[in-house]
Fold these 3 entries.
Entry 1:
Amino acid sequence: MLTASGGTAPYTYAVTAGALPAGVALSSAGGLSGVPTASESFNFTVTVTDSSGSKVMAAYSLTVNAGTVALTFAGVPAQTYGNPPFMGSCWRSCSSLPNAACGRR
């Protein structure tokens, strides 16, 4: 689940550069779901838009390795427009991933 704070809720999320792995989707509410179908690295940018039209972008790298998923936050550029500025963050819920991806057996 990707989250944002500040700005004016509600927020909408979209992949605006790069691509998620085949089988994985990002909902407009920020939820990541699905099961990747290939083992490789994927780079993508998510743009979050608040209800007043202010936007912030964050670059992510997602690596899929034989049942292991690693999501790395690559940083959020400074917000230069819109009030107040807001930033995004990411966390991964193990409940929707295979046991091996979360270190469970």
Entry 2:
Amino acid sequence: MKADSQIPKAVPSIFRNTIIIYQTSNIGSNHLLDTVVEEGEISEDTKQIVMRVVHQYFKPEIINRMDDIVIFTPLYGSMKRITQKLLDDLNRRLDDQI
């Protein structure tokens, strides 16, 4: 009896009708943060720079398996509104305690 006969054989996986969320990353975020305008718009130049960084980071074999690469806009203006809302809520709670 061979030692490797006790190792189970690999069963092929079938990914038909399957959605796989592959990966998220902060690659290129420094370019986004440096060039985004307050409304959160991303220029075409910035998108090209970020995509160049993505292609430098990932091997072509990985990129070719991706259906789409989505560049999310930073929470630049939204972060101010979120922070202000949290501060307003905190102030209300503190006022209620006094």
Entry 3:
Amino acid sequence: MYDSKAYSIAEITEMTGVSKPTLYRKLRERDSNPKLYEEASSKENNNKKGEQ
């Protein structure tokens, strides 16, 4: 959601129920460990393909 630039921080926090500090913390973690999050994202995308 964040990377699509289609939603504001306020919209993301409202839609997900994640607080603003938590969202920013997770974004910092993701940016400092991109390989970890790429692997998780890849697994999630593979799971979605299997559901179709």
